[in-house]
Specification:
Keywords: Hydrolase, Serine esterase, Signal
Structural class: alpha/beta
Helix content: 25-40%
Number of domains: 1
Order of helices and strands: HHHEEEEHEHHEHEHHEHEH
Mean pLDDT: 93
InterPro entries: AB_hydrolase_fold (IPR029058), GCE-like_dom (IPR054579)
Number of strands: 9
Largest sheet: 9 strands, mixed
Distance between the termini: 50 Å
Oligomer: single chain
Radius of gyration: 22 Å
GO molecular function, one term: carboxylic ester hydrolase activity
CATH architecture: 3-Layer(aba) Sandwich
CATH superfamily: Alpha/Beta hydrolase fold, catalytic domain
Strand order of the largest sheet: 1-2-3-5-4-6-7-8-9
Pfam families: GCE_fung
Protein name: 4-O-methyl-glucuronoyl methylesterase-like domain-containing protein
Length: about 450
């Protein structure tokens, strides 16, 4: 791929068995790969990110008066040549593609033109009870074809749960989830519990199903894993180029492959699949929603920087934090440029345009309270991304948030296709599930629609 860079790195590869024509993946620490990416970009130093400790001399800004050093946002309805986008056709045929290209090159990275096929296998089918609802749960593995590079294996973990009494295909909420100690998948929610029914029970009460995808089985959440997982498989174990995809796009790719499976499963109405995620997985859920127009509704939880928060906001987490060695693997290598020598102002796109790529499909932006969750994720910055995506929704005959005034906590703005609610809890989507489900039901209806 880049021999001058790779030759010295190959000495770092561990001595593991490999065929002569398939050398093992290059092994680099996140710190070393981060430095390698800076060298490729000709960057000697990055600006320091903000500190989450409010007592630190470099504490993250939480003063709204200082939050907008770059107030001018890119216009989602103006072509690169300056022409105004005044028709849905012009948006669909030209402007949307321009925005996607900018996100691909500078922010999230490019997915290879051809990625390996995924063969889904149902490894277990169980009859269970969630709360008081009988369900059928399938455990699946998506085996990614690694015949081109057998040194990397990618097996995607997915579970699908639907009501046992469903008379036909049902809507499904797909959540980005976790693997627990011992390699076990997501546990069943308790029959009842503190705080009322779980989100799974609330989904089942509507006659819908739910699925949980484990992102770490698609791509590890570390820069040290970039030569493995789906990114490493596609690169034959070599380090990334500066515009190659990062983990957020890889996780979104995994969600799309799950949706491919749903299109073959008679228990799922694949036209009514919703996607949900929290925090870094909220970022991934928004990326999946923006790039794959088959997803019907998005539930984007506390996604912050790299998600729904405006990059140009200096409030809480900053571009410089995401570009650091702990998070850079989420993004394209080119993103590092905007933490030195460039700034967020120089980005050709911003988060409002990521939300706009979801149009005309509905998106619910969720966040917790400043007192409990904190200000790191920047509730107002995510709200404003929804506000500034509104003109695209309106061009396509839909409604935005309907206001540019930040609402009081626990005020649900759900009249349009862009929705927002700040709940009184912490870093969770939990308190917003009832509001989201009522919002989503407008679009996906009941189980038999």
């Amino acid at each position: 791929m880049r021999p001058t860079v790779l030759l010295p790195l190959l000495a770092l590869v561990a001595a593991v068995p490999a065929r002569a024509d398939h050398p093992p993946p290059v092994q680099l620490s996140a710190k070393d790969d981060h430095k390698r990416t800076m060298d490729l970009l000709g960057i000697k130093e990055l600006r320091r990110g903000a500190d989450g400790n409010p007592k630190s001399p470099n504490a993250a800004n939480s003063d709204e008066a200082k939050a907008t050093p770059y107030p001018d946002l890119p216009d989602p309805l103006r072509l690169k040549d300056g022409q105004r986008v005044t028709t849905p056709e012009l948006w669909r045929t030209r402007r949307r593609a321009e925005i996607v290209e900018d996100f691909d090159r500078e922010v999230y990275g490019r997915v290879p033109r051809q990625t390996p096929k995924v063969k889904w296998e149902v490894t277990r089918t169980e009859k269970q009870t969630v709360g008081d609802v009988p369900v059928v749960t399938k455990t699946l593995v998506g085996r990614v074809d690694n015949s081109a590079y057998p040194a990397v294996t990618v097996d995607i973990a997915l579970t699908l749960t639907v009501p046992a009494a469903a008379a036909g295909p049902v809507p499904v909420v797909l959540e980005f989830g976790f693997v627990f100690p011992g390699g076990k998948g997501p546990a069943l929610p308790p029959p009842g519990g503190k705080g009322g029914p779980s989100w799974q029970q609330q989904v089942l009460a509507k006659g819908w199903g739910y699925a949980i995808l484990v992102p770490a089985t698609v791509q590890a959440d570390t820069g040290a894993g970039l030569t493995r997982g789906i990114i490493g498989l596609c690169n034959a174990g070599r380090p990334r180029g500066v515009d190659d995809w990062g983990a957020l796009r890889a996780w979104a790719w995994g969600a799309s492959r799950a949706l491919d499976y749903f299109e073959t499963d008679p228990s799922v109405d694949a036209r009514r699949v919703m996607i949900e995620g929290l925090s870094r997985y909220g970022k991934a859920a928004l990326v999946a929603m923006a790039y794959d127009e088959r997803f019907a509704v998005g539930f984007i939880g506390s996604s912050g920087a790299g998600g729904a928060k405006l990059h140009r906001r200096d409030f809480g987490e900053k571009v410089e934090n995401v570009a650091g060695s702990g998070e850079y693997h989420w993004m394209a290598g080119n993103y590092l440029k905007y933490a030195g020598p460039l700034t967020a102002k120089d980005l050709p796109v911003d988060a409002h345009e990521l939300v706009a790529l979801c149009a005309p499909r509905p998106v619910f932006i969720s966040v917790g309270s400043a007192q409990v969750e904190g200000t790191w994720v920047d509730a107002r910055g995510m709200f404003l991304a929804g506000v500034h995506a509104g003109p695209v929704y309106e061009l396509l005959g839909k409604r935005g948030l309907g206001t540019a005034e930040f609402p009081p906590q626990e005020t649900a703005l759900v009249a349009g296709e862009v929705a927002f609610r700040q709940h009184a809890g912490g870093h969770t989507t939990g308190p917003n599930w009832p509001t989201f489900l009522r919002f989503a039901e407008r679009y996906v209806g009941g189980p038999g629609r």
